[in-house]
TrEMBL record:
Keywords: Membrane, Transmembrane, Transmembrane helix. The chain crosses the membrane at residues 26-47, 59-79, 91-111, 131-149, 156-178, 190-211. InterPro entries: NrsF (IPR009495). The lineage of its organism: Bacteria, Pseudomonadati, Pseudomonadota, Betaproteobacteria, Burkholderiales. The keyword Transmembrane helix applies. This is Anti-sigma F factor.
């Protein structure tokens, strides 16, 4: 077959690609991640028994807002990393905002109590399990995020994988908040971020291996 004939054959099967195809894939991955984390949370941990009463507390919604904001920043990063040659750009700034706000609130909370009471605020009662629980709940979103990236064209594979892991961890934390009994900002600033960091680091490691063309 001649080169011109091959080009004509390939071009004959060309179909226009939707401008929002990548965003649609990430929307599906996010929905699957939340649903999967919800099923796992109910199966492994269950809802906290006083959830309805807890919903009246501002800090409960603060946990959800933090996780949702970080997930939105993760999607913003993925939208850039899914396209070839794109730089991180302002997505890095949006990624930094939720943790910085949470750390600032944690420092204020610690400054308002005696030194002897600071360690309990940081450790809570579930510090040994919280990060691993969040990481476990992130698994469905982690798989879905890599599926979404496989249908795109990332070139910065470590960043893309880290973005998928970050989104997965944030969604895992979002769902885990429906079970977690901890409400202190110092606890969240350490152990929630540790739980989100686990799939983020794993994504950075696996990205170059699983996403290469």
């Amino acid at each position: 077959m001649k080169t011109d004939e091959l080009i004509h054959l390939l071009a004959a099967d060309e179909r226009p690609v939707q401008r929002t195809a990548i965003e649609q894939r990430f929307a599906v991955a996010t929905a699957v991640g939340i649903a999967g984390a919800g099923v796992l949370m109910l199966a492994l941990f269950g809802l906290r028994p006083d959830l309805l009463a807890t919903m009246a507390l501002p800090m409960f919604w603060g946990k959800l807002v933090f996780a949702a904001a970080l997930a939105a920043a993760g999607v913003a990063l993925l939208r850039r990393m899914a396209r070839p040659g794109m730089q991180v750009g302002h997505a890095a700034l949006w990624l930094a905002v939720p943790p910085l706000v949470l750390w600032a609130l944690a420092l204020v909370a610690l400054a308002q109590v005696p030194a002897a009471e600071r360690a309990p605020l940081i450790l809570g009662s579930t510090w040994r399990t919280c990060p691993f629980n969040i990481a476990a709940l992130s698994v469905p979103a982690f798989v879905a995020g890599f599926w979404a990236l496989k249908g795109a064209a990332p070139t910065r594979l470590a960043w893309a994988g880290a973005g998928a892991g970050l989104l997965a961890g944030a969604l895992g934390a979002l769902v885990y908040a429906l079970h977690c009994p901890e409400m202190a900002t110092p606890f969240l600033a350490v152990w929630y971020l540790a739980g989100i960091a686990i799939p983020t680091a794993l994504g950075a490691v696996l990205g170059p291996r699983l996403l290469r063309w």
